[in-house]
Amino acid sequence: MADFMKVAKSKIDASAGELNTISQEIWSHPELNFNEHHAHEVLTDYLEKEGFNVERHFVLDTAFRATFGSDNAGPNICVICEYDALPEIGHACGHNLIAECGVAAGIGIKAALEASGNKYGKVTVLGTPGEEGGGGKKRLIKANAFVGIAVAMMAHPYRYNVPRPIALSMTVLVIKFQGKASHAAAAPWDGNNALDAAVTCYQSISNMRQQMKPACRVHGIFTNGGAAPNIIPEQAELTYYLRAVDENELAMLKKKVEACAEGAAIATECKVEMWTWGSNANVITNSLLVDIYEKYARDLAVHWSEHDLIFGSTDFGNTSYVVPGIHPLFRITGGANIHAREFMATAGAPEAQAPTLIQAKALAMTAIELLQPSGQDTLKKIQKEFKETVSKLPMPDMGD
Question: Do residues 96 and 49 touch, judged by C-beta distance below 8 A?
Fold first, then answer.
């Protein structure tokens, strides 16, 4: 096994220049969710050149599946690429590095399989578009893209090294108030102020924060506040992101926020309508799988942060409900946080390359251990932990 791991690491090192080119191509051509056409072409062209069987436009126009090996020989290990950017601030979430890391791990695992005589299993590099608000992985889940996969892994750039981040369940809640328009000076008493309802709702939610659990997050904006100052606003609208540690906690949080909206409607004699979209499940980190990853990351001189860190939300959470998975964070900067222009600059800097390839090696070595005959018992234990954990939780919404 040590020889196969050496082969994987050597392949990644030998390909460092090409991998950096891929990352730079994606970074310098930021594309929003489900419009990642250039990134799709760059990634699939390279994987095809490297000898993978590539299915372009897999399920979704900018998704892909690249495979090597045989299902009959052993388990199918999946490494995930993301490559969509953010509006206005480009790759400020570092998805160019996630893509590079996934491809690098994939070619490393493929090299090890080739060195074994292709007798140990299969590697899948799965390109998942639309992570930033699009829920691309949920659409792939609904199309059974993860059926037959033993484990799924990816690594995300950050400001700390965190092997087991807390990625929260989330949903988007839209709150729309309907009032009655009237002249704001001549006859304000004839109106019902929907903006007052929205302001009251906003303030009520803010007042409720003291009673929220520490990991809960509620953050929102006004998306409609009326048409003109001399018209009593007949419509007003808020959009909130609600987040909690799991689906059960999220349901309780949502109920409390909805009560704030209903109370505001009663207080202002308005009507309220609410709906949700864009939900992501919390990430279930498989402890046995991440133990293996941590072992090899330590061997590569990765030092873990002591932070018990909450890391937003991701559609990888939904993936972790259908297949055992890990989603470690790796440090590329000690300064800016994700979704900041400074992080965008760092994601495209030469200094980001070494930590990205270290993560690729750690993921590849994890996969190689599981692909060995000796890894089959470990895989069974990973699957057992996964099934026991998921059986105790409500299945998250896999809709768009």
Answer: no
